[in-house]
């Protein structure tokens, strides 16, 4: 199975509500990243949290990391229709100079106007 | 702004054809990556390169090769395209290690092999 697995696979909410997505992983990590992908496009980096951090904020995004449970969550507050996208977590398991990421299968978020 | 471009957004090829997918980044990044993305499987790493003329296999290199003759350009080659290579192909780049660990992605190439 994937190093990173998102849960749920799909989520539908109303505009203004909060959206929470979870990511679980299997091995020790250096950091964990969240990316967004709009339909048929490339991925865009949202936020990076390091293994020694527990929580991080960026605008309407809040990410938590629990290394003891090997899990992370992404919270989007006050969602907007423009937040409709797929969200992926990615874990950095590389050593040295090459940072190889392993991506999960994604959560598809639909925000209804 | 970092810009990663891919030569085609959509590509249709026939089984057995040789296919070239080109990726160019304009930020002098050392590392470049090729992924394929399939429904239910997420992104899977095909090959990556951490320097000119250097390459390393990712998780699914079979049926693919790569070329990195210049720092800004990373090409993915399907020597003899097959229908199971129909997929979305994403290129990414990143600076060498350190705190700059974000990957910057191109818009993707959707390849259909008939």
List the helices and strands and how they pair.
The complex is a heterodimer of chains A (113) and B (114).
Chain A: E1 5-7, E2 10-14, E3 19-24, E4 31-37, E5 43-50, E6 55-58, E7 61-66, E8 71-76, E9 85-92, E10 101-103, E11 107-112
Parallel strand pairs in A: 2-11
Antiparallel strand pairs in A: 1-3, 3-8, 4-5, 4-9, 6-7, 7-8, 9-10, 9-11
Chain B: E1 4-6, E2 10-13, E3 19-25, E4 31-38, E5 42-49, E6 56-57, E7 64-70, E8 73-78, E9 87-94, E10 104-105, E11 109-113
Parallel strand pairs in B: 2-11
Antiparallel strand pairs in B: 1-3, 3-8, 4-5, 4-9, 5-6, 7-8, 9-10, 9-11
Written account of the structure:
- Chain A has no helices and 11 strands.
- Chain A has 113 residues and is mostly beta strands.
- The relative contact order of chain A is 0.34.
- Chain B is mostly beta strands.
- Chain B is built from no helices and 11 strands.
- In chain B, the strands form 2 sheets. In chain B, strands 2, 4, 5, 6, 9, 10 and 11 form a 7-stranded mixed sheet that branches. In chain B, strands 1-3-8-7 form a 4-stranded antiparallel sheet, with no helix packed on it.
- In chain B, a hairpin with a 3-residue loop joins strand 4 and strand 5.
- Chain B is globular and about 40 Å long.
- Chain B starts with a strand and ends with a strand.
- At the A-B interface, strand 4, strand 5, strand 9 and strand 10 of A face strand 4, strand 5, strand 9 and strand 10 of B.
């Amino acid at each position: 199975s994937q190093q990173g697995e998102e849960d749920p696979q799909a989520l539908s909410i109303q505009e203004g509500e909060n959206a929470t997505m979870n990511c679980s992983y299997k091995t020790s990590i250096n950091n964990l990243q969240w990316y967004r992908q709009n339909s048929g496009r490339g991925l865009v980096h949202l936020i990076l949290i390091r293994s020694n951090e527990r929580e991080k904020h960026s605008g309407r995004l809040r990410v938590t990391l629990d290394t003891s449970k090997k899990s992370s969550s992404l919270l989007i507050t006050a969602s907007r229709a423009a937040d409709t996208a797929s969200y992926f977590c990615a874990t950095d398991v590389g050593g040295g100079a090459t940072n190889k990421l392993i991506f999960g299968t994604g959560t598809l978020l639909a925000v209804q106007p | 702004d970092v810009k990663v471009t891919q030569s085609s957004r959509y590509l249709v090829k026939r089984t057995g054809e040789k296919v070239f997918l080109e990726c160019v980044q304009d930020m002098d990044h050392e590392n470049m990556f090729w992924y394929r993305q399939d429904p239910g499987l997420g992104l899977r790493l095909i090959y990556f390169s951490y320097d000119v003329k250097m390459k390393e296999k990712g998780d699914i290199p079979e049926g693919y090769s790569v070329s990195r003759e210049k720092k800004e350009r990373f090409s993915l080659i399907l020597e003899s395209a097959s229908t199971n290579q129909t997929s979305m192909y994403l290129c990414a780049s990143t600076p060498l290690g350190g705190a700059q660990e974000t990957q910057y992605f191109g818009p993707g190439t959707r390849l259909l092999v008939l």
